[in-house]
Amino acid sequence: MARYVATVATPREAGAALDFVADFTNLTQWDPGIVSAERLDDGPLAVGARFAAVIEFRSMALTYELVEYTPGERALLVAEGGGLVSRDLITVEPTDDGSRLTYDATLTLSGFLKVLDPLLAIGFNRVAGKAVAGLEEALEGTRVA
Fold first, then answer.
1. Potential cystine with 66: which of 2, 11, 49, 109 (Cβ 3.0-4.6 Å)?
2. CB–CB of 24/37 below 8 Å?
3. What is the SS3 assignment for 12?
4. What pLDDT, in 10s, does the model give residues 21-35?
């Protein structure tokens, strides 16, 4: 399993920050490792919303589903495919000058690929670091952890 956790302080209100990041159609605005992202259904951001994202590495396509969503507090998106499980937990808390958003991403390999987990962690940290730098810029914030 590979895991990357980062917290960004942003002047955005907690609900606006969460909705921007949890709406995976915005991935291409902050994650340089994403080639394309689109919503697969209509309606407001809610449990059951689905997103297709193409990851630059091997042009891998993943379908994410919003499996947990509490407006202004937390969102959990999960994708499975290509021997990979991606779990992205986004939490926010209000502050006096905006909010603090924590992005907790884990990747787990399944099946015979599981033996490659140590290598996945090394590569994932590098890729996730670039994504968090993009997230800081998109949220007009600064990384605090």
1. 49
2. yes
3. coil
4. 999 999 999 999 999
